[in-house]
Amino acid sequence: MKFLIIIPTHNEEKNILFCLESLKNQTFKDYKIVVVNDGSSDNTQKILEEFLANHRDFELKNLEKSEHQPGAKVVRTFNKGLQAVGLNDFDIICKFDADIIFPPDYLKKVNEVYENNPKAGMVSGIVKIKKSLFEKKLAFDFRDEKKHWIFENISSKNHVRGPIKSYRKECFQHMNGLRPVLGWDNIDVMLAKKHGWEVVTIKDLWVKHLRPTAYKYKNQIAVKLGEYFYNIGLSLPLAVISSAKSSFKNRSFSEFFLTMKSFLTQKGERSLKKEELQFIRNLRWREMLKKK
Q: Over 90: is that where the pLDDT of 126 sits?
């Protein structure tokens, strides 16, 4: 299978070379990589141009800096890369973050799942973050004898995480691509399931995430959660239950009220179709009842 890997990037001068080197060193070589530089103001573009000059399987697309919108910006940047290349010559579509280091057998193992399971629509490993100082000399060492890397526990190990998304082309097309809204990286999983595809994570295959997810938005989590619940069309009872579960998990009584206030004040038009919203509501109810 042939992979198209698109890497949206903005001001990643500290991380981008680690990411690109780890992809260059993959044992699986049937890929094309497009790095989409979204108006970086640091040395990212210079670093990319120097690296890509010597690697034909890597391509650079420079954009003017776009307006920052959590969730929406990264998908729009990804889509610019997609538009520049198209899907015709590829079997697997990947959206990878620029601050990820991949083990050398990452693409090989992901490809094996797609080859062996025709129902697999989305596949990934799991994401780990450093619990101590990042040692550059050990950047590409995945033995982790010092136990410096721990699971980034913001979602289940069964969830294909936003920084390392991959899609079978047919699944990606059934979903009508990625939606440029907050929560896109949960919406895609639910839409894949809507169209009968399986979502697979390889539990013993992990990547290094050099920056914790949403580290810039720690103080806005409740507000963003309310917006996400609105984007996926939760009914009021579902929003109340989901908000309560999250606030209980985070041991924050105030989070519940902030999340619900955000949910109730959303007025924008949703990007999902009515049948997609209904499927997501039904799916959420089924998952909640199953846990009980």
A: yes
Report yes or no: 281 and 236 within 8 Å, Cβ to Cβ: no
Is residue 184 scored above 90 in pLDDT?
yes
Q: Which of 90-99, 123-132, 181-190, 214-223 has the lowest mean pLDDT?
A: 214-223
Under 8 Å between Cβ of 266 and 230: yes
How many Cα atoms are found within 13 Å in the side-chain-facing hemisphere of 284? 22
Per-residue 3-state assignment (H helix, E strand, C coil) for 186-219 = HHHHHHHHHCCCEEEEEEEEEEEECCCCCHHHHH
Q: Where are the beta strands (DSSP E) in the chain?
A: 3-9, 31-38, 58-63, 92-96, 100-101, 120-130, 149-151, 164-168, 198-209
Give burial (CB, 10 Å; 0-12/13-18/19+) of 212.
middle
- How far, in Å, CA of 93 to CA of 116, rounded? 17
Sign of CA dihedral 214, 220, 226, 227: negative
Cα separation, 249 vs 1, in Å, equals 41
CB 211 within 8 A of CB 99: yes
Q: Which residue has the tokens 């080859």?
A: 115
**Is the pLDDT confidence value at 266 over 70?**
yes
For residue 166, list its beta bridge partners: 94
pLDDT of residue 214 exceeding 60? no
